[in-house]
């Protein structure tokens, strides 16, 4: 596990918890953090999956911001890009993607030397690595189980950002192995039938569904009142 680089890196706008920590959106991420901790209070190390029904619903943005708010509490956090088909984490944090999860699942390298410092205290990153021809088969291997146990010994929170659950089987495989799953839904864009299918897929995988995050939900006047009050 590497220590965070003290050099400040320019963070993209999507990391609102970092760029605008007192915003309403940032506070909502902290509320989700509290709800997750209440949902699985007995685990000293928590492995959580973030997925969605379809693409472009905000699951990667949600996972990244959640990783930051968990790290804010002083806990050791690892954020993993488990989308070995369309990785995005390396762009979010402006880092390389030559090595990562796929390499470890192929038995190349080790965890401690594969993680990258995010530039944020307590937060490490594991990129997806080079895109393999068989992501689902790699995730079903015993190597992933061994890797997850190693992660539990090093981190308080391990967050997996997976592909959409209705697109490929990767998310179902991970959901079965994680302590809890968060389903991200894009308000106004996600179709009800797709959300229901995603829920059913998670149930089939025997996933523990922690809850649903409604992304891009319209704010009410009460939200703005409390935002101004806190300021």
UniProtKB/TrEMBL annotation:
Alphabetical UniProt keywords: ATP-binding, Kinase, Nucleotide-binding, Transferase, Tyrosine-protein kinase
A matching Pfam family: AAA_31
Transmembrane regions listed in the UniProt entry: none
A molecular function GO annotation: non-membrane spanning protein tyrosine kinase activity
EC number, UniProt record: 2.7.10.2
Catalytic activity: L-tyrosyl-[protein] + ATP = O-phospho-L-tyrosyl-[protein] + ADP + H(+)
GO cellular component: a single term: plasma membrane
AAA domain location: 56-176
Similarity remark: Belongs to the CpsD/CapB family.
PANTHER family, per the entry: FERRIC ENTEROBACTIN TRANSPORT PROTEIN FEPE, TYROSINE-PROTEIN KINASE
Protein name: non-specific protein-tyrosine kinase
Organism: Planococcus donghaensis
